[in-house]
Amino acid sequence: MSRALSDSIVNVLTAESIKPFFAVRLFFDTQTLNFWTGLGDLTVASVTYTGTGRLLQISELSETAEISAQGATLTLSAIPSELISLALTEPYQGRLCQIFFGAIDANRQYLVAEDGTYILAEDTSRIDLSSGDPNEIVEVFSGYMDQMNIEEGAETSTIGLSVESKLIDLERPRVFRYTDANQKARFPNDKGFEFVEDLQDKRFTWGRG
Prior knowledge:
The protein is of the alpha+beta class. The chain has helices spanning 7-13, 81-89, 180-186, 196-200, and strands spanning 20-27, 32-36, 41-44, 47-51, 56-58, 72-79, 96-103, 136-152, 157-165. It is built from 4 helices and 9 strands; from the N terminus they run H-E-E-E-E-E-E-H-E-E-E-H-H. The protein is elongated and about 105 Å long. The mean pLDDT is 76.
């Protein structure tokens, strides 16, 4: 399944100098953890991501022409004890996970002369004409947390988290029974199956006067 990329991302990918990154959002019940593969805090679309540098690793993300569920693996190294406590105490299976690809300064616009060179300020810095969010991201994976493996150390630990694609839902059977309770769970005011249970042991006199 192909994905549409914004013009800003496409322009960055074809530029001579590129500042790409990956970002991850993990939606636990009590809080959402946001990480990115750079240093320091990064805010994109009003969401602040905590920098992990090379401590966050993301497995290869693959897509096929066919509709099939392709998972991924996230690895966080040198994890502090409070995050380990969160991983051990919070239910995580089936919780949402999003992975983004982005570029820093993707939307920057600088004042340019007619010959294509940058017009500089007195301090030799470029004159920024940008407005709005300078960074750009695009979602490359959306799925659910599946299995978490924790390797604990003396001071820090490593968490390996496997996530499965939302397309896995297509492989789960949808069980529907023709009962009054099942029908009213979907349509509370529907009485079409109200007498189904009574009909199971019902005796009918057929063909007699």
